[in-house]
Amino acid sequence: MMLITCSHCGPRAQTEFTYERTVDSVVQPDADPAQAMEQLFTRANPRGLDDELWRHTFGCRAWLVMTRHRVTHQIEAIRAVGPEALP
Amino acid sequence: MTDLSITQLPAARLNVLEIWSNPLAVLDRFKKAFGPPLPPLGSSLQLLDRQLIRYEPTVWLVEGETTGLAEVLGSDGSLTAIGGGIVRVRLSGAGWRSLLMEGGVFDAESETFAAGCSAATVIDHVNVRLLVESDDACLAYVPLSYAHDMIHFWTVAAQSLV
Amino acid sequence: MSGPRRGDDCGSIRFTFDGKELLARPGDTLAAALLANGIGLVARSFKYHRPRGIMAAGVEEPNALVTVGTGGRSEPNTRATDVFVYDGMVARSQNRWPNLAFDVGSVLGLAAKTLPAGFYYKTFFGSAKRWMFYEWFIRRAAGLGDAPSEADPDRFSQRAAFCDVLVVGAGPAGLAAALAAAEAGESVILVEQDSLLTPSLVRDPQELGPAWAQATAVRIRALGGRILLRTTATGYWDDNLITLSERLAEPGEQPPNGTAQRLWHVRAKRVVLATGALERPLAFAHNDRPGVMLSHAVRTYVRRFGVVPGQRVVIATNNDDAYLTAIALRDAGAEVVAVLDTRPAPAGASSGFPVHNDTMPLATKGARHHLREVSARVDGKIVRWQADLLAMSGGFTPVVHLHMQAGGAALNWDEASQSFLPGAARQSVTSIGAAAAADPVGPTPSPENPGKAFIDFQNDVSLGDVDLAWAEGYRSVEHLKRYTTLGMATDQGKTSNMAALGRLAEKQGVAIPEAGLTTFRPPYTPVTMGLLAGRTERDAGAHLRRLALYEVHQAKVPIWQPLGYWKRPRAYPQGTETLAQAALREARGVRQAVGMTDVSTLAKFEVSGPHAAALLELICATTVAKLAVGRGRYTFMLREDGLVFDDGTVWRLGEDRYLLTSSTGGADRMATHISYVRQFLCPQFKVSAVNVQEHYAGIAVAGPQAKAVLAALIGDEPPRHMSTTSATIAGLPVIVLAASYSGERAFEIYVEASQAEPVWAACEAEVIAQGGCLYGMEAMEFLRIEKGHLVVGGEIDGRLTPHELALGGMLNKADGFVGAAGLTRPALTQPGRKQLVGLEALAGTIPEGAMLITAPGQPAEGHVTASGLRVLDGGSIALGQLNDGFARRGELLLASSTTRGQSARVRVVAPHFYDIGGERYRD
């Protein structure tokens, strides 16, 4: 179980988070259909670092983009995404 | 540990205050209206007739009065009632920190988790929000559907704390 | 007098082993107490049923597995060396019939030549049916203890802890490390699997003895450190998370405060592994006989437990440590008749024992399950010693399990000690003491008879089996392991893996590190299921969520039904009614008068702000923005791939305020989906979407009299179908939504859940006054099937498009909603895809979950998603999914359920059986 440093809450147990998807699979609502399906179904799936979308679902509920190593679970970078918020 | 008591408090008026735009402007208006700033994530602000507890980047839980808040928000946010679905449980006694480690994953034993601090976490698979009242008491905001089981869980766990 | 014995003080703790009443001293392990009572035969081996005794004094024990406790507290496969005797303990041997001394299964041992490695693979091949037949016998012949048949009455707790330093192992090294960390101001947790600190100082007294250990522990605790005894670090996970299994009571013992075990999740900034080393046995013929023990273990029984396991002792060793055992035995009055040392004679002083250098045991012989004789080849001649104990030492293997579980960790081969030492690690972990270094050893010669030279005692694998696997072409260590089952027993090969690896490397002609290693998997020692399951007093693994109106329902003694995470009333039987009778009465009550039911579990989201409609138009595949204030509509939601995953209703409560409802089972998924769209895709939106699922309790009132009920309750004209209004019932504010899921005129009343009871009571009084009744999930299912309403998880199973669910006409013509792009996929318009159909039985009952086929033996072309009946007229009807179903109306099919052994002839019809024009909704 990883320890994930939430950009808002600091280090918390992985139990509080949910993995949602890889960032390269994100489809913008206004994307061209062919391009959208390409995004959705053709993924890089690297053995190594990848950008992943996680959510601190059972904590502050914020969405996070995590650069995580798929083999070692090492988290290289983490940043919050979402609406503008007060510090 | 015998000096721990687990008490269900009466239903409270609870509202979600969400800011969706111009947070700094809302902060200014809040300070003008109430004095202190809106509390940062992981903490709370106690006013005479209400308490604001921040659990999310753009969301504060307002316990008590909401008068004046709609004006502070203007067109930059809204209030939504959620109190019907939340049960407040007070864990009082010196052992509350140890009790929260039972079935938990959050470091409630840390000294930095002091009076006024808040945290949302998982305890025994249930999403619970915590608010430290003092060294001797902590409030837990528990979803209504889980409250009966959680109170039972804490009551039983308290009996075997060491 | 031969065999194990103890002095005059037999102790005062009473326990039984296989029904025999015995005495033990405080602090005894079961193994020590058995030896003290002269019991050498403790178990039968897994495969050959060979008589086995106690080999070790710690958790590595491969032989002495016993069942401890009775009833729900019974714990099978417990190592006798890892359980401390308490008053009233009941222990039993395993894998024997009719008893330990005379075991019918032991004929398997005589036939061992016919049961070599891979025996099962070679013999029991053929059809699955034949395997099932063989398995019945194999399970009984080769086995461990029986699982308890009753529920465990005790509590199992799970607990988190955070610290700067976790020290695993309270030997001298671990204790010193813990003290140093505590004195440096670090928060410390020190864990020890034994019941006392520094057990090795009891085995090998030094200047710093147990008194030093006690004083150190006091100091660590005074500095705020936590010391946990009877606690094993069982797993090392990501980011320095270590799981600990703590025993608050011994196996089978009634725990003093109700909690038997505690599973700790410790997150440490750094971890110090002072896990010590395990002694390796030597491989020679019949090295598994009771009376053949590890040297360290013998010393432990002598010095710590005051039990001398034998009176005439042969020592076999390849290192110096075993000489300490010889001294301990001599001091305790036993006679060391020979020391067989594989190393050449050293120059210099003699040890004072009869040492034979360059010598390995050849074989042992026994009588009545006891060791009687040890033989060896000395200067080319076979010499025999009468002996009742053989203490052996093949050197020491540092316990690197946790180090390796940490991931990204290296092991370095140490030729001198013939062992792997912990190397660099990715996580913040260091190994110290005997876990980090081992003393040099001499040669370990190959035995003359490898077939009876056991290395994995628990799974009965000999060096001969390793040779056989090699001869049959198994080259990799992973294949060797799987073929021979070596290291796959509950001890995970703690005493056997190095011997097997050495043999394999020898066969391969490579050095040991090149032969490869198998994976070190958690748990380090076996853990009970209860520890992992956690608390046991509830019926499900997780909490079942309670309705706000739980007490109200409970007072009516309903049949409860778990639905998703919820517990909901399925029906409210009256008198002697069965579920089916009650549900049919309730459904007819709705059709003919009025019924009410609890719909509180529906997912509900309050969406407010200038972008509320825009957000909902992204989430819903129907139009939303055109709704007038006070109006609502049916809606459904698509995944990005274009398939329907949920449905519900959306209501415009105010200018910029909407209420969205969706399915109970999909509530959490919908919450995440809404959050994703709002927070991630549209962070610029001025909108607040709040989950109010639990804020509102919901009561549905349905039936021809529903309008009259509502009028009486709110004192006003009720809203038209698909309209909403706010009102007051029992003095409390409510939201009334005029929506129907039953096919009748119906309303949903939402009230703050904490105030739901008076509103429910008022509704119930009015419903009863109008000749109505309560109805549960079962009646609701009958009503919605007949009307052709969809259910998420049934018809809406995440595999169909809106068109295939006959919802295509409601799709938002303007694209831009989530899933619009997915709908353009060509694959979704290919022929042969499933489409929603209705089914009516020509006779009989359509089985739930049946396959739709054209004739017996033909492939399934669809399936029944929900089976019900015509509520007023009778007759079996169903909803289903069928390949190209829209075009097949009128076709006759067979609905066949092989699992239920039922089938019915059905006609494909439209998926509506009741009030097709929807006239009953309208005013």
SSE topology string of chain A: EEEHEEE
Structural Rg of chain B: 16 Å
Q: How would you state the average pLDDT of chain B, rounded?
A: 96
Shape of chain A: globular
| Percentage of residues in strands of chain B | 35-45%
Protein topology:
The complex is a heterotrimer of chains A (87), B (162) and C (923).
Chain A: E1 3-6, E2 10-13, E3 18-22, H1 33-41, E4 49-55, E5 63-69, E6 75-81
Antiparallel strand pairs in A: 1-2, 3-4, 4-5, 5-6
Chain B: E1 5-8, E2 14-19, H1 23-34, E3 44-46, E4 50-56, E5 59-64, H2 69-73, E6 77-81, E7 86-92, H3 96-101, E8 118-123, E9 126-134, E10 137-143, H4 144-159
Antiparallel strand pairs in B: 1-7, 2-5, 2-6, 3-4, 4-5, 7-10, 8-9, 9-10
Chain C: E1 5-6, E2 13-17, E3 20-24, H1 30-36, E4 43-44, E5 51-52, E6 65-68, E7 75-79, E8 89-93, H2 107-110, H3 119-123, H4 128-141, E9 155-168, H5 172-183, E10 188-191, H6 199-203, H7 210-222, E11 226-228, E12 231-237, E13 241-247, E14 259-273, E15 277-279, E16 292-294, H8 295-303, E17 307-308, E18 312-317, H9 321-331, E19 335-341, E20 355-357, E21 361-367, E22 370-378, E23 381-386, E24 389-393, E25 396-398, H10 401-405, E26 411-414, E27 419-422, E28 429-431, E29 454-456, E30 461-462, H11 463-471, H12 477-484, H13 497-508, H14 512-515, H15 529-533, H16 550-554, E31 559-563, E32 566-571, H17 579-592, E33 595-598, E34 603-608, H18 612-619, E35 632-638, E36 644-654, E37 657-662, H19 667-681, E38 688-691, E39 696-702, H20 706-714, E40 724-729, E41 732-737, E42 746-752, H21 756-769, E43 773-774, H22 777-787, E44 834-841, E45 851-853, E46 862-869, E47 876-883, E48 892-897, E49 902-909
Parallel strand pairs in C: 2-8, 9-10, 9-14, 10-11, 14-28, 16-24, 18-19, 18-24, 19-20, 33-43
Antiparallel strand pairs in C: 1-17, 2-3, 4-5, 6-7, 6-8, 12-13, 13-14, 15-25, 21-22, 22-23, 26-27, 29-30, 31-32, 33-39, 34-37, 34-38, 35-36, 36-37, 39-42, 40-41, 41-42, 44-47, 44-49, 45-46, 45-48, 46-47, 48-49
Helix pairs in contact in C: 5-7, 8-9, 11-13, 17-22, 20-21
Explain how this protein is built.
The complex is a heterotrimer of chains A (87), B (162) and C (923). With 87 residues, chain A is mainly β. Chain A has one domain: 2-Layer Sandwich (Folate-binding fold). Helices cover 10% and strands 39% of the residues of chain A. Chain A has one helix and six strands. Chain A has one helix spanning 33-41, and strands at 3-6, 10-13, 18-22, 49-55, 63-69, 75-81. With 162 residues, chain B is of the alpha+beta class. Chain B has two domains: 5-11 and 85-159, Gyrase A, domain 2 (2-Layer Sandwich); 14-83, 2-Layer Sandwich (Alpha-Beta Plaits). Chain B has a five-stranded antiparallel β-sheet with strand order 1-7-10-9-8. In chain B, strands 3-4-5-2-6 form a five-stranded antiparallel β-sheet. In chain B, strand 9 and strand 10 form a beta hairpin. Chain B is elongated, with a radius of gyration of 16 Å. By secondary structure, chain C is α+β, with helices and mostly antiparallel strands. Among the domains of chain C are: 155-275, FAD/NAD(P)-binding domain, CATH 3.50.50.60; 279-392, FAD/NAD(P)-binding domain (3-Layer(bba) Sandwich), CATH 3.50.50. In chain C, a hairpin with a 4-residue loop joins strand 48 and strand 49 (902-909). Classes of the chains: A mainly beta (87), B alpha+beta (162), C alpha+beta (923). Chains in contact: A-B, A-C, B-C. At the B-C interface, strand 6 and helix 4 of B face strand 9 and strand 14 of C.
